[in-house]
Every structure is written in C-alpha cells, then in structure tokens.
Amino acid sequence: MLKLKDSTVNISQLKPELWFAAGAAMVIYDQYNNLQNCVITSGNDGRHKDGSFHYKDQAIDLRVWGFSEETIGHVRDALADYLGRDYDVINERNHIHIEFDPK
Q1: In angstroms, how far apart are the furthest CA atoms of the chain?
Q2: What percent of the chain clears pLDDT 70, i.e. is strictly above it?
Q3: Any idea what DSSP says for residue 53?
Q4: Rounded CA gap, 35 and 101, in Å?
Q5: Please, which residues bridge with residue 4 across strands?
Q6: φ, ψ for residue 2, nearest 5 deg
Q7: Can you name the residues that pair with 38 across neighbouring β-strands?
Q8: What is the pTM of this model?
Q9: In this predicted structure, what is the pLDDT of residue 35?
Q10: I want to staple 53 with a disulfide (CB 3.0 to 4.6 A). Which of 30, 35, 70, 99 is the partner?
C-alpha cells in the first residue's frame, strides 16, 4: 500500500514519472516485507538542497523504517534496476530518494 507520511507531504503537482516510480516502489517494498507500507515522506515540501528535484516535482523520498541496512540496499538496487537510467535512486541512510533525471 502507498501512503503519505502526513498531510504536510505535497505531491499535488508530482510529475507522471514519479507516480510511476512510486508504483514501482510499492511493489518492491511488498516483495521485501509485506508488513511495511511504502510511505512517501517528502515531495515538493520540506527543506532540501538548492536546486533539488523536489522543488521541480521530480523527486520523492520513501520511508525505510523497519528495514535492515542490507534490505535497504536491496530495495534501492531493485528500484534502480527497475526504473532504469533516467532515474537516480539514492540511499540517504534514513530514506530512499528517487528523482527523475533523464540522461
């Protein structure tokens, strides 16, 4: 299941490519732990680096609570493989960051 952290998460203008990524994340999260919901913790909200893809509605962050470091790595790798080279999938230690960044 795909959820939002809370009402502060802004995905109202999220690009279609990120909806695709969120759907992929939901399936992959379920493969690694069917008890762990796929939770978007940030879209175009919060504080991010200058020039962040979040501010272009081209990035989301995903919660990794309940996953071991090893599982986070596997989930990140599975997402990167599935989404392909037009996406950057980064393990930020306390979340997985996905951005649409066509090469």
Answers
A1: 35
A2: 97
A3: G
A4: 30
A5: 40
A6: -100, 130
A7: 2
A8: 0.91
A9: 61
A10: 99
Q: Which is it for strands 95-100 and 87-91: parallel, antiparallel or unpaired?
A: antiparallel
Phi/psi at 94 (5° precision): -110, 5
What one-letter code names the amino acid at 31?
Q
Contact status, residue 34 vs residue 88, Cβ threshold 8 Å: no
Q: Domains in the chain, ordered, with CATH?
A: 2-100 (3.30.1380.10)
How far is Cα 10 from Cα 30, in angstroms, rounded to an integer? 24
Helix (H, G, I), strand (E, B) or coil at 69: helix
Alpha-carbon distance 33 to 57, whole Å?
28
- Which residue intervals of the chain are DSSP H helices? 16-32, 69-83
Residue 10: how many other CB atoms lie within 10 Å: 15
Tens-digit pLDDT profile for residues 31-51? 887 567 899 999 988 778 888
